[in-house]
Design a protein that fits this description.
The protein is α+β, with helices and mostly antiparallel strands. It is built from 4 helices and 10 strands; from the N terminus they run E-H-E-E-H-E-E-H-E-E-E-E-H-E. Helix 3 crosses helix 4. The radius of gyration is 20 Å and the shape is elongated.
Length: 243
Amino acid sequence: MPKEQPEQQAPPVQRLRVRYAKRGRLRFTSHRDFSRAFERAVFRARVPMAYSSGFNPHPRISYAGAAPTGSASEAEYLELALAEVVVPADVHAMLDEALPPGLDVLEVVESPGGSLSDLLEGSRWRIELALPRAEATDAVARFLAADEALVERMTKKGMRQFDARAAVVLLEVVDDASSAVEGRTTLDVVLRHGTPAVRPDDVLRGLTAVAGTDTGEAPLMTRLSQGPLLADGEVGDPLVPHA
């Protein structure tokens, strides 16, 4: 008896790139939980998705550069492959309505082609710490003067040691509304993406390793932007065409 062949799906006719935010308590949503919630939102919004071929077709959604669980973010990205040509603004409105508050769609644009992941070369983070400003300033200066800051983290491949200092493009203490509270400090951090990826909590462990600083419990970490690293150390917008 001939083997049944899986149905072959038509190729996508349009791709859209989406920027979304994780805010408030929804920052504790894992990437797996978010992907399930987003697929349900796509279904409820009746977005005309393209599907993968095979015996178990699934909507063609590509996720890129997801923030660690527990971190808030204003700059998460994904790409949708569609079976029909649509108006990006219409998809924006439909998805934002279908997602819960705290998972907010901020921008939807048509993809110009190429790899979205390749554009995400760095991230800018705001880290709010329960740490006096003078102590934080001293720790930052010692971290930046160090040749390396070795930290350890459990990864999918087991415990890994890597240099948190090498990924830091910028690290400074900044004036912020939360800094007006005595004993709290805000850090501005730009990280270069690499393998393994250095996260903002790795930088805090690096501060402890280099300066012996206790950065306190439950720091609030928010990704402000993510995109190409520019020559001046700033993080560009991956949804804006670059030469």
